[in-house]
């Protein structure tokens, strides 16, 4: 892929995997497990065809050569091994990005080999296409990315709040515009949601729970309107006197969200904020019987 952006900008987007869920459509969530400035371990969740796959990768970052090598340490079936490299090279006024993969499949079953190749090619093409889209707008990325959050303090057990946030299918009727139509949880802690499309967030989402850390992260995999991408997180932080419950929103705006479309983008973000605050209010009701915001 060639793109009209400095090689250093493109390398930075590739090297910082924590931004991938917002910037790259197939990527659902990334947890950075270790990082020493050059080598890192990542736990990643991504769309793989009609599945949610997860694996652990080791990466070596070479900023001088603008090169990122990766190797899956813990794979997801049917993948037996997966290695690869990103390289970024300047060519005059543009930069060229190359993404290579090499893989093996357990048992070498032809159907499994074909599936892994098809998914890897499709996701790689989608990542490179989005990288080109970002490169064309690299001078405006700060304007196109929006992050905001709300926090309430509740005097109630953290476990009850997390329980409410996790059981989205049981949310009350007055959260109908936020409550999903269907919830599938084939893998414990990983939910695939179908939404009714009435809100600004689109029609499909994936949520991943980390109950030991008091967190639930989400990505809306089919967005609509002025939102090019939307991710977020619920976090519950208890202390001696209560619990801080925070909802965080991360938004990547599309081209129609600037200029004449700016008011639509502002309305979409306002809608996300209001919906998040309503859920916070109901979580407090569920956990304590009455809202006790301190």
Describe this protein's structure:
- With 294 residues, the protein is α+β, with helices and mostly antiparallel strands.
- It folds into 2 domains: 135 residues, Alpha-D-Glucose-1,6-Bisphosphate, Chain A, domain 4 (2-Layer Sandwich); 147 residues, Alpha-D-Glucose-1,6-Bisphosphate, Chain A, domain 4, CATH 3.30.530.20.
- It is 27% helix and 43% strand.
- It contains 6 helices and 14 strands.
- It has a 7-stranded antiparallel sheet.
- Strand 13 and strand 14 form a beta hairpin.
- Helix 5 crosses helix 6.
- The longest helix is centred in the middle third of the chain and has 27 residues.
- It is globular and about 60 Å long.
- The relative contact order is 0.13.
- The C terminus is likely disordered.
Q: What is the number of helical segments per DSSP (H or I, 4+ residues)?
A: 6
C-alpha Rg, in Å?
20 Å
Number of domain modules: 2
Structural class based on helices, strands and sheet pairing: alpha+beta
Overall, the morphology is globular
Secondary structure: helix percent: 25-40%
Ends distance: 52 Å
Question: What is the name of the CATH class of the largest domain?
Answer: Alpha Beta
Say which CATH homologous superfamily of the largest domain is assigned.
Answer: START domain
Shape-level CATH architecture of the largest domain: 2-Layer Sandwich
Low-confidence stretches: 290-294
Amount of beta strand? 35-45%
The beta-strand count equals 14
The ordered H/E elements are EHHEEEEEEHHEHEEEEEEH
What can be said about the biggest beta sheet? 7 strands, antiparallel
Q: How much is the average pLDDT? A: 91
Task: Kindly identify the CATH topology of the largest domain.
Answer: Alpha-D-Glucose-1,6-Bisphosphate, Chain A, domain 4
**Strand arrangement, major sheet:** 1-7-6-5-4-3-2
InterPro entries: COQ10_START, Polyketide_cyclase/dehydratase, START-like_dom_sf
Pfam families: Polyketide_cyc (PF03364), Polyketide_cyc2 (PF10604)
Protein name: SRPBCC family protein
């Amino acid at each position: 892929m060639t793109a009209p952006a400095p090689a250093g900008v493109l390398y930075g987007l590739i090297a910082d995997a924590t931004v991938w869920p917002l910037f790259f459509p197939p990527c659902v969530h990334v947890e950075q497990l270790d990082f020493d400035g050059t080598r890192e371990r990542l736990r990643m969740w991504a769309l793989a065809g009609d599945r949610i796959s997860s694996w652990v990768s080791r990466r070596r970052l070479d900023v001088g050569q603008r090169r990122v090598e990766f190797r899956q340490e813990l794979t997801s079936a049917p993948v037996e091994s997966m290695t690869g490299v990103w390289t970024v090279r300047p060519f005059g006024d543009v930069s060229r990005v190359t993404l290579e993969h090499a893989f093996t499949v357990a048992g070498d079953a032809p159907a499994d080999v074909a599936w892994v190749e098809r998914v890897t090619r499709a996701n790689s093409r989608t990542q490179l296409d989005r990288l080109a889209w970002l490169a064309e707008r690299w001078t405006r990325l700060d304007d196109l990315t929006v992050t905001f959050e709300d926090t309430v303090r509740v005097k109630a057990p953290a476990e009850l709040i997390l329980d409410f946030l996790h059981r989205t299918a049981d949310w009350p009727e007055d959260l109908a515009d936020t409550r999903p139509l269907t919830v599938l949880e084939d893998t414990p802690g990983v939910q695939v949601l179908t939404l009714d499309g009435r809100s600004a967030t689109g029609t499909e989402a994936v949520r991943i729970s980390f109950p030991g850390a008091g967190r639930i992260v989400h990505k809306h995999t089919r967005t609509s309107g002025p939102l090019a991408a939307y991710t977020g997180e619920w976090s519950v932080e208890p202390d001696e006197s209560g619990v801080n419950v925070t909802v965080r929103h991360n938004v990547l705006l599309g081209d129609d969200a600037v200029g004449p479309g700016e008011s639509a983008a502002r309305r979409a973000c306002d809608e996300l904020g209001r919906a998040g605050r309503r859920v916070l209010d109901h979580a407090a009701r569920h956990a304590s019987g009455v809202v006790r915001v301190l």
